[in-house]
Amino acid sequence: MYSPRHRPARGSVLTSVLVTFSIACVFATAAYFAMPASLYATRDQPQAIEASNERHQETLDLLASMIASCKEIIAIKPRGASPYAELVLRVSGEADEHVLADEVVLISHSRVLQTIVLFEHAPSDTGHRIAFARSSVERPGFADQWRANPEVSPRILATGISDMQLERPSVELLRIVLTWAPDSADGKDVAAALIAMADPSAGSSLLQE
Question: Cys-Cys link to 49, which of 63, 126, 192, 207 (CB 3.0-4.6 A)?
Fold first, then answer.
């Protein structure tokens, strides 16, 4: 389990995001405002919820754009036996039964620390890339092993988040809901984003009401 030496101030958001995501996030954010009306959430679908606080909305948009910029969602690990809510993403490469370690990231939320942390594997210095079966990523215990791997580094994406829910209303949609507790720096708030999951070879895009 990742335990930061100094807990950051609540409500703060990491100002710089991974370089590997930066360009893709620009296009993903643009898609947020350009989705055709036929893809918008309907009355029968879970809805996107805009945060009442501008900084909270920026946090959600950042996280949703990052997810939308990835190639595919490999696994969703809801809170249960584990105290974490987690998402395993392929950020590069082609959809296959095998994945390379430096193609995978884990986004993890801790209720205890009220943080969202991204865990990524360091690139190989020798050119030898570690591969493993996709099925191993989907097994229980993968996230714990990934966080404990000495080659995996944590990056704090956001703090002051009391809860993160990951919902899959359909194979085409992912809904992410963030909750800020009343004692957070900017007060209690709830916001949700819908992400339309496209074909893995084409990436994903955001839905906006």
Answer: 192
Q: Report the candidate in 149, 94, 140, 97 with the shortest Cα–Cα distance to residue 120.
A: 149
pLDDT digits (tens, 9 = 90+) for 42-95: 556 678 999 999 999 999 999 999 999 888 888 888 887 678 999 999 888 777
Angle at 106 between CA 198 and CA 21, to 5 degrees: 60
Contact between residue 93 and residue 66 where contact means Cβ atoms under 8 Å apart? no
Closest CA to 77 of 145, 160, 151, 7: 145
Whose structure tokens read 């898609």?
A: 31
Q: Is residue 163 within 8 Å of residue 79, measured between CB atoms?
A: no
